[in-house]
Amino acid sequence: MDYDVLVVGAGPAGSGAARSSAMNGAKTLMVDKKKEIGTPVQCGEVIGLDLVKRSGMRIPPQAKHLALRAALAGAAVQADTKLLSAKVEGGNVVGCVLNHQGDEVEITPKVIVAADGVHSTMSKVMGAEFFSPQDVARGVEFELVAKRDVPECMHIFIEEEIGLGYGWIIPKGKRRANVGLGLVGVNASRRSFLEDWITGHPVVSQYFDVDKVLEVKIGDAPVPGFLGGPVKGNVLFCGDAAGQTLAFVGEGILPSYIC
């Protein structure tokens, strides 16, 4: 099966690339290994208003909205479809094998967009090591019910016990918030570390206990600093696979989409 462009990963970066590709007339296929695009949530669920204004977008109403925009622009979109392997010749990918809902499918795209996260399958296929373990923040987040009203602002914590990472409180209402850590250089159970941090922190503990957890969200994020540029042969890396996040808040949704 032939496509001009194969986009691996239907997150913000992949969806933005697929939409742009389709709008410019390329026959485009975007795949995502998850059965439901955008789940489970692996982020703090916050975007910067300035970036919303710069991009000319309205705040998306739900996680699949950006993938919907790609589909409406003419891209083919397939969830539950995983990149298994790729054949590389002369530094270019000349063929890909996908697992589509249990069946193997071979395609021969002209260009691949690797938007498949910080642990990118395509980077392994290309032998491109863009991140070392110390370049990755190990994220863990609880959606918590608060003991008292939470201030209507985002808190960022830069503290020695977190290592080179950061902590956050992101309000989702008066009595509900995402509270999490991005751990860099800390080799500990991330969930236990977060529980201890919340319980012992002089500010965070004023608002939260760890006995009212509505959701646990775990994922890794790159520390920006992409090595060697985002293009390898006929593969364009973007999003978390290319380190397109803002380090001081860990925001990657709109930076990835814009890039």
Structure description:
There is one protein chain. The chain is an alpha/beta fold and 259 residues long. The chain is built from seven helices and 14 strands. The chain has helices at 12-23, 49-55, 65-72, 121-125, 190-200, 204-207, 253-258; strands at residues 5-8, 28-31, 76-78, 81-89, 92-100, 103-107, 111-114, 136-145, 155-157, 166-173, 176-183, 213-222, 231-232, 235-237. Strands 3-2-1-7-14-13 form a six-stranded mixed beta sheet. Strand 4 and strand 5 form a beta hairpin. Helix 1 packs parallel to helix 3. The longest helix is centred in the N-terminal third of the chain and has 12 residues, at 12-23.
Portion in helices: 10-25%
What is the C-alpha radius of gyration, as a whole number of Å?
A: 19 Å
Hey, roughly how much beta strand do the residues contain?
25-35%
User: Regions with pLDDT < 50 over 5+ consecutive residues?
Assistant: none
Can you list the strand order of the major beta sheet? 3-2-1-7-14-13
Number of helices: 7
Mean pLDDT: 89
List the main descriptive attributes of the protein structure presented here.
single chain; 259 residues; 6-stranded mixed sheet; 5-stranded antiparallel sheet; 7 helices; 14 strands; globular
Question: What's the structural blueprint in terms of helices and strands?
Answer:
Elements: E1 5-8, H1 12-23, E2 28-31, H2 49-55, H3 65-72, E3 76-78, E4 81-89, E5 92-100, E6 103-107, E7 111-114, H4 121-125, E8 136-145, E9 155-157, E10 166-173, E11 176-183, H5 190-200, H6 204-207, E12 213-222, E13 231-232, E14 235-237, H7 253-258
Parallel strand pairs: 1-2, 1-7, 2-3, 7-14
Antiparallel strand pairs: 4-5, 5-6, 8-11, 8-12, 9-10, 10-11, 13-14
